[in-house]
Amino acid sequence: MKTVCVLMTFIFVNVLAEINMNNYKQQVFLTNKLIQKVYEHNNAKGNGLENVIKTFVGICTLGHLNLMFAIPDRLQYTGQMQISYILQENLLQTIHHTFSFPVPEPHQFPENLNLEELGNERRDYTGRALENIFRSGLKYNTIYGAGARGMEFKLIDICHFIALYKNAKFLSIDNSLGHINTAEDDIFGRCTLTSTLDNSTTYYKKVVNQIIEVFEHGSPKKPLLDSASDSASTSSSS
C-alpha cells in the first residue's frame, strides 16, 4: 500500500456530512489502538511507530502531521473535524495494511470518550517515539525500509519533527499551552517555530546528530531533549 497524505474525500463523500463529535472521537480511539500496537512492534526495519512517523513527515504538511500525531483534540475551525477524521482513517489504514494489525470492532468503544484524554494518549506514544527518533540520530528509515546510503531527511522535515516533538511532549505536561503551528527552514540551516499562544518564536539547529535550541543570532542555547526534561521537572515540582 502506497502511503499518501491527501484528503481522500472521494472515499468519504457519502459519510462526511454525517460525521459528528461522537463519530470523530471513536475514530481517534480506533487509531490510538493501532498506534499503541505499532509502537510496541519492532522488526529489522526498526520501531513501527517511529517508521510510520518518518514516512508521513516526508509527505505531509505540518498542519496534517499535527492532527495525526500531536493534537487530534485541537479542532480550531469549522470543517477541521472532517479533515482530521480523514487523516485519522488514513493513518489507521496505513498501519493496518502495513503491519496487518486488526482494526478494533465498534463494540469495543468505551462509553463517554473524552477527546482531550484521547489526545493525551496519542501524545504519550508519539512523544516517546519522536524522542527515540532524535536519540537515534534521525536515521532515514521508513515503513518501506532504509533509504539509499547517505540519504538524509531534508531540513524542513527536521523542522517538522521538532514541532511534532514539542507539541507532543509539552502539551502532555500542560494542555493549556499553545502549540507549534508553523515551522520554517532558512538558508542558515535553522528551523524557526512559531506558537499559537502568543506568536512567540524559537529557533533550532541540527549540530552533528543533536538538535540544539539556538538564539536568533545563532549561538547555542540548550539541547531540544533537555527542554522537555526541564519542563517535566518544573511541572512536577509545582
Index terms:
single chain; alpha+beta; two-stranded antiparallel sheet; disordered C terminus
3D structure, described in words:
The protein is α+β, with helices and mostly antiparallel strands. It has one domain (9-237). It is built from 8 helices and 9 strands. The chain has helices at residues 9-12, 21-39, 48-57, 62-69, 80-99, 115-135, 155-173, 224-237, and strands at residues 42-43, 46-47, 141-142, 145-146, 180-185, 190-195, 201-207, 210-214, 220-223. Helix 2 (21-39) runs parallel beside helix 5 (80-99), helix 2 (21-39) runs parallel beside helix 6 (115-135) and helix 7 runs parallel beside helix 8. The longest helix is centred in the middle third of the chain and has 21 residues, at 115-135. Residues 7-13 and 232-238 have low confidence and may be disordered.
Q: What's the story with the biggest beta sheet? A: 5 strands, antiparallel
Q: How are the strands of the biggest sheet laid out side by side?
A: 5-6-7-8-9
Structural class: alpha+beta
Helix content: 40-55%
Number of strands: 9
Which series of helices and strands comes N to C?
A: HHEEHHHHEEHEEEEEH
Number of helices: 8
Low-confidence stretches: 7-13, 232-238
Overview in brief:
This protein is 48% helix and 15% strand.
Layout of SSEs?
Blueprint: H1 9-12, H2 21-39, E1 42-43, E2 46-47, H3 48-57, H4 62-69, H5 80-99, H6 115-135, E3 141-142, E4 145-146, H7 155-173, E5 180-185, E6 190-195, E7 201-207, E8 210-214, E9 220-223, H8 224-237
Antiparallel strand pairs: 1-2, 3-4, 5-6, 6-7, 7-8, 8-9
